[in-house]
């Protein structure tokens, strides 16, 4: 029988998201979720939700949430695009800014593993740029692509690129620079102001990490109106559902909760760093809610597998350089101690 699937789709591997193991005894430190609960306002708004509103389609352009973001960031509402998680925003950026015929997608290697998958889905070329031996900034002279996804702070390395480097790059780069700030609330610096200064910059954010709302799927980007309008032209008709819009709106109004849980994560990050260093791990200075660590013997892959047997889930990325490292989400302090206990067992270092 004739193959019914498009050839380019047959050839795809598809994105494999981090595992979502269930069960109360699982220590889940593999997908950079927040161990704390979101704003209690969210609970209240869900109880008050108007059933009649659910019978209607959602606002197609997320007006009320965008008003709050505009106010928070002092930008125009016309400079904001809202999506079903920032993953959707990233996918739309390729569809809007990369020509099918001859266009290309750039990103650092290593960085977020979704970018090349999205480029493959759209059947466009990828132009990865290798980071230096310490996972620091490195950009070849005259480098070009249609879009460059610049993850800052970077994932999975947890490091923040200096803002001067980012700005210098933006000024000389001929395409659209999408600065992916998924983890910026855990960092010491943001590039948000570049989105209003430069016509080729979009800064993308999510409520999945610092707002503890990965389950609602809400992300947005900020930038020049011309770029934003292009994204609105190609999005799905009602890309963000009514419940998500309401939850996002009240969560974004409650700065206090976001700041409190972000501070708590940063404190736990310090504890986890010290505990892992005491076990002989090399821990890179994280500006995110996860750590990028080089473990002692028996090495990254083996430790990853042994932790999984003990119901502790972290992330290991196969690859020349990444294969020697592990990415561990900063959990609660109780989760950190369960991780440490399991590691002591694996490393034969029981206290
Ligand atoms: N960008 C980066 C760098 C990420 O690590 C993630 C989380 N997987 C995302 C974007 C996607 O975030 P969201 O949940 O908003 O789709």
Automatic annotation (TrEMBL):
Which Enzyme Commission number(s) are on file for it?
A: 2.6.1.9
CDD domains in alphabetical order: AAT_like
Cofactors (names): pyridoxal 5'-phosphate
Under which pathway is this protein filed?
Answer: Amino-acid biosynthesis; L-histidine biosynthesis; L-histidine from 5-phospho-alpha-D-ribose 1-diphosphate: step 7/9
Q: Which residues form the Aminotransferase class I/classII large domain?
A: 25-343
Keyword presence, Amino-acid biosynthesis: yes
- Keyword check for Phosphoprotein, yes or no: no
One record GO biological process: L-histidine biosynthetic process
The similarity annotation says: Belongs to the class-II pyridoxal-phosphate-dependent aminotransferase family. Histidinol-phosphate aminotransferase subfamily.
Put simply, this protein is called Histidinol-phosphate aminotransferase
Q: Which organism is it from?
A: Tichowtungia aerotolerans
């Amino acid at each position: 029988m004739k193959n019914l699937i498009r050839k380019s789709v047959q050839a795809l591997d598809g994105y494999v998201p981090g595992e979502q193991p269930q069960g109360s005894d699982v220590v889940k430190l593999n997908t950079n979720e927040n161990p704390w609960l979101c704003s209690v306002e969210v609970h209240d708004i869900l109880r008050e939700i108007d059933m009649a509103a659910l019978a209607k389609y959602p606002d197609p352009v997320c007006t009320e949430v965008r008003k709050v973001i505009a106010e928070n960031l002092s930008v125009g509402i016309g400079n904001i695009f809202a999506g079903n998680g920032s993953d959707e925003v990233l996918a739309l950026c390729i569809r809007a800014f990369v020509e099918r015929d001859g266009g290309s997608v750039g990103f650092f290697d290593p960085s977020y593993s979704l970018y090349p998958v999205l480029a493959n889905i759209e059947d466009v070329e990828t132009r990865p740029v290798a980071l230096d031996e310490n996972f620091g900034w490195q950009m070849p002279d005259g480098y070009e692509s249609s879009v460059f996804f610049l993850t800052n702070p970077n994932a999975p390395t947890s490091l923040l690129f200096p803002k001067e480097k980012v700005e210098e790059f933006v000024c000389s780069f001929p395409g659209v620079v999408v600065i992916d700030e998924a983890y910026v609330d855990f960092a010491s610096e943001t590039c948000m102001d570049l989105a209003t200064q430069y016509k080729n910059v979009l800064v993308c954010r999510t409520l999945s990490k610092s707002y503890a709302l990965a389950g609602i799927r809400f992300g947005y980007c900020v930038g020049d109106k011309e770029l934003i309008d292009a994204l609105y032209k190609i999005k799905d008709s009602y890309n963000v559902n009514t419940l998500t819009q309401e939850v996002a709106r009240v969560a974004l109004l409650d700065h206090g909760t976001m700041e409190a849980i972000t501070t708590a994560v940063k404190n736990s990050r310090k504890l986890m760093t010290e505990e892992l260093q005491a076990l002989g791990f090399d821990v890179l200075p994280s500006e995110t809610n996860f750590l990028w660590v080089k473990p002692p013997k028996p090495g990254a892959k083996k430790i990853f597998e042994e932790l999984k047997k003990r119901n502790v889930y972290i992330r290991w990325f196969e690859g020349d350089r990444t294969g020697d490292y592990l990415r561990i989400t900063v959990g609660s302090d109780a989760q950190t101690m369960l991780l440490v206990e399991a590691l002591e067992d694996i490393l034969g270092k029981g206290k």
